[in-house]
C-alpha cells in the first residue's frame, strides 16, 4: 500500500524532473542561440529569426503550413512525437550554414521544412527523443525566370503555386510539370520526384531539374559542378532530408500551348462506373502523351449509398483535337464537347485545385491548402488491370468507412516509360499502368479517431495486395508512409532499411545509400525514413 508520504515524495520527484527538463530545454535553446550569434555575425538580429517553445509565435509558426495535424494534438503517449527545440527561419544561406555547424557542435539534429506537406509530418516533428532545430525555409522563396534559355532558379521555400503564377506572368507559352496542390513546397516535392497533370508528356518535376544548390553536412554550399553527378543524381527523387539542405533548383521550363482543355465526368458505381474503370485501365497509360485522365473514386462520408467515380482530365490542346481521341479510345465514357472547357495552362492549375478557371490566379499564392485536415495515406503502383471482382471489393471497403475516403488513380506511360529507372533517383517508370493513392481524412482529431481510421486504411492496403506491384510492393516517397518501416533510433543497417527503402527507390536504393555514405558519413541528416549508410 502506498502511504501519503510516498505519494508526496513521488509528486516532488516528478515536479523536480519537469523543472530540470524545462531547464535543460531552456539551456539548450540558449546555447543554440549563442552559437548562432557568434557564427552568423552581428549583422542579423538572431532573436528575430529564432523561436523557442516559450516564444509567443512558436505554436503558430509550427502549425502554419503543416498539412496534416493528425499528430500535433495527439494525446496518445505512444505516438506522441517530439516538437522542435527551436524554429529557425533563415533569411540567407549563411544562417543555414551556421545552423548546421551549431546543431552539430551541440549534438542536436535538424529537420527542414519547405512547404510542410510531408504526409507523416517529418519536416516539423520527430519520433526520436533527440532535440532538433527546424529550419523553416518560408523566407527563402525567390523565383528568377529566364525565358532566353527557358529555365528558372527557384528557392526551395517557394511553393508550386508561386512558381506557376510567376511563370504565367512571364510567358503564356511556358509551364512546369509538377504536382497539383499549389501550396506544396519545392524543397520536399522535387526531392521526392513530384508529378501532376503533365507527367505523361514531360515526366516528373525532378526529371526537369538541370542544376541545384545544396548545403551539405559540413555547411558547404555546392552546385551541380561542385557536388558532382552522384549527389546531383541522388537529390532528384531520393527523398528530402537525406543529403543536405536544398537551397534552390534550376528547372527547365516546358512549352505549353495557348489553349489546354479540362473535363470532369462523374458517374457512380450504381451507374456503371466499374465497367468504365475496367476500360480506363487498359487505355490510360497508352493514350497520346498530351492526354492525362485520372480517376478519383470516393465514398461520400457517413452512410454513402454508392461510390462516386470522377474522370478528371487535362489535355495539352483544344477541344477539336481532344474529341476524336476520346471517341476512338474511350467512347464508353460518352464525353461530349459541352463537358469540356478550354482554358490557359495557368487556369488549369486553378481548375485542378478546385477553383473556377475564371478565379483570380492570385489564389495560387495562398500557402495554406484548402485540403488541411487530419489524414492517413498510402500508395501503390498497378502493373496489370485490377479485375471487376477486385474493384467491387474496394467499393465495399470504401462504403464501410464513415468519413471521406478515396482512391486517386493517376496514369503513367508516355514520357514516364521512356526514362530509364536509373536515370535519376526517382525509379517508378515503364511497366506501371498507374499510381494509386489511398486517402482517408477526418475532422475530429483525437487519438481514438486516428487509430480507427488508420486501422481502416491498413485493411484496405492489405486487401489490395494481390492487385498491385510486388517484389517490391513499390510506393511513392512523396506519399510518405511510416507503416512500411522506419529506421531504428541508432545504427539502422542497410539491410534493415532495405525493407522500406526498396519499396520507395527499387534498385536505386543501393546507389542512394552508397552516395549517402560518401557525402554524409556521420549520418547528420536523418529522420525516421532517411537513407542509411551503405554497409
Ligand atoms: P515538407 O516541407 O514537409 O518536406 C517534405 C520532406 O522533404 C521532409 O522530409 C523535409 O524535411 C524534406 N525537405 C523539405 N525541404 C527540403 C529542402 N529544402 N532540402 C532538403 N530536404 C527538404 N505529390 C505529388 O507528386 N503530386 C501531387 O499532386 C501532390 N499533391 C499533394 C497534395 C497535398 C494536399 C499534399 C499534403 C501533398 C501532396 N503531394 C503531391 C505530396 C508532396 O509532393 C510531398 O508531401 C512533398 O514532399 C511535400 O514537399 P514540401 O516541401 O511541401 O513538404
Structure description:
With 535 residues, the chain is an alpha+beta fold. 33% of the residues lie in helices and 19% in strands. It has 15 helices and 18 strands. It has helices spanning 4-40, 58-64, 93-105, 160-170, 186-192, 199-202, 224-234, 273-283, 319-329, 345-352, 388-400, 415-418, 447-463, 494-505, 508-519; strands at residues 50-52, 86-88, 109-113, 132-136, 143-146, 151-155, 174-175, 209-215, 221-222, 245-252, 254-255, 260-268, 291-298, 308-315, 340-343, 374-382, 405-411, 434-442. The strands form 4 sheets. Strands 15-12-14-13-17-18-16 form a 7-stranded antiparallel β-sheet. Helix 1 (4-40) packs across helix 3 and helix 11 packs antiparallel against helix 13. The protein is globular, with a radius of gyration of 24 Å. The model is unreliable at 73-77 (pLDDT under 50). Residues 67, 111-119, 122-123, 137, 156, 179-181, 184-185, 187-189, 191-192, 194-196, 240-241, 245-246, 369, 371, 478, 527 line the site of dihydroflavine-adenine dinucleotide.
Amino acid at each position: 500500500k502506498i502511504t501519503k508520504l510516498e505519494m508526496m515524495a513521488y509528486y516532488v520527484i516528478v515536479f523536480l524532473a519537469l523543472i530540470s527538463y524545462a531547464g535543460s530545454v531552456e539551456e539548450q535553446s540558449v546555447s543554440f542561440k549563442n552559437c548562432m550569434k557568434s557564427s552568423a555575425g552581428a549583422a542579423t538580429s538572431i532573436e528575430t529569426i529564432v523561436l523557442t517553445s516559450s516564444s509567443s509565435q512558436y505554436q503558430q509558426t509550427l502549425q502554419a503550413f503543416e498539412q496534416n495535424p493528425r499528430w500535433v494534438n495527439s494525446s496518445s503517449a505512444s505516438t506522441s512525437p517530439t516538437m522542435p527545440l527551436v524554429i529557425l527561419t533563415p533569411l540567407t544561406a549563411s544562417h543555414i550554414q551556421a545552423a548546421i555547424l551549431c546543431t552539430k557542435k551541440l549534438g542536436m539534429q535538424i529537420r527542414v521544412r519547405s512547404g510542410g506537406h510531408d504526409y507523416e509530418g517529418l519536416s516539423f516533428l520527430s519520433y526520436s527523443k533527440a532535440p532538433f532545430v527546424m529550419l523553416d525555409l518560408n523566407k527563402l522563396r525567390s523565383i528568377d525566370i529566364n525565358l532566353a534559355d527557358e529555365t528558372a532558379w527557384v528557392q526551395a521555400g517557394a511553393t508550386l503555386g508561386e512558381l506557376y503564377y510567376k511563370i504565367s506572368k512571364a510567358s503564356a507559352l511556358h509551364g512546369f510539370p509538377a504536382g497539383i496542390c499549389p501550396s506544396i513546397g519545392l524543397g520536399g516535392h522535387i526531392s521526392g520526384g513530384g508529378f501532376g497533370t503533365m507527367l505523361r508528356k514531360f515526366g516528373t518535376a525532378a526529371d526537369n531539374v538541370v542544376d541545384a544548390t545544396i548545403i551539405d553536412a559540413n555547411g558547404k554550399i555546392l552546385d551541380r559542378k561542385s557536388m558532382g553527378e552522384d549527389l546531383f543524381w541522388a537529390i532528384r527523387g531520393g527523398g528530402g532530408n537525406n543529403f543536405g539542405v536544398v537551397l534552390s533548383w534550376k528547372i527547365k521550363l516546358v512549352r505549353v500551348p495557348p489553349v489546354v482543355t479540362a473535363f470532369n465526368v462523374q458517374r457512380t458505381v450504381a451507374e456503371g462506373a466499374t465497367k468504365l474503370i475496367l476500360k480506363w485501365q487498359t487505355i490510360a497509360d497508352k493514350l497520346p502523351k498530351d492526354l492525362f485522365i485520372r480517376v478519383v473514386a470516393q465514398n461520400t462520408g457517413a452512410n454513402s449509398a454508392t461510390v462516386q467515380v470522377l474522370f478528371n482530365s487535362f489535355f495539352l490542346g483544344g477541344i477539336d483535337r481532344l474529341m476524336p481521341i476520346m471517341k476512338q479510345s474511350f467512347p464508353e465514357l460518352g464525353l461530349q464537347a459541352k463537358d469540356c472547357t478550354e482554358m490557359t495552362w495557368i487556369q488549369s492549375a486553378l481548375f485542378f485545385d478546385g477553383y473556377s478557371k475564371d478565379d483570380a490566379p492570385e489564389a495560387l499564392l495562398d500557402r495554406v491548402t484548402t485540403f488541411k485536415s487530419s489524414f492517413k495515406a498510402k500508395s501503390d503502383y498497378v502493373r496489370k488491370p485490377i479485375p471487376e471482382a477486385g474493384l467491387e471489393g474496394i467499393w465495399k471497403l470504401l462504403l464501410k468507412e464513415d468519413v471521406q475516403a478515396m482512391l486517386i488513380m493517376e496514369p503513367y506511360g508516355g514520357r514516364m516509360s521512356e526514362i530509364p529507372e536509373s536515370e535519376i533517383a526517382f525509379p517508378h517508370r515503364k511497366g506501371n499502368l498507374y499510381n494509386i493513392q489511398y486517402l482517408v481524412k477526418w475532422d475530429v482529431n483525437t487519438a481514438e479517431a486516428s487509430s480507427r481510421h488508420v486501422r481502416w486504411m491498413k485493411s484496405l492496403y492489405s486487401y489490395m495486395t494481390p492487385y498491385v506491384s510486388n517484389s517490391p510492393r513499390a510506393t511513392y516517397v512523396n506519399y510518405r508512409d511510416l507503416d512500411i518501416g522506419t529506421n531504428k533510433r541508432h545504427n539502422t543497417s542497410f539491410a534493415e532499411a532495405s525493407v522500406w527503402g526498396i519499396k520507395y527507390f527499387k534498385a536505386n536504393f543501393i546507389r542512394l545509400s552508397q552516395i549517402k555514405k560518401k557525402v554524409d558519413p556521420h549520418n547528420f541528416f536523418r529522420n525516421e525514413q532517411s537513407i542509411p549508410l551503405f554497409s
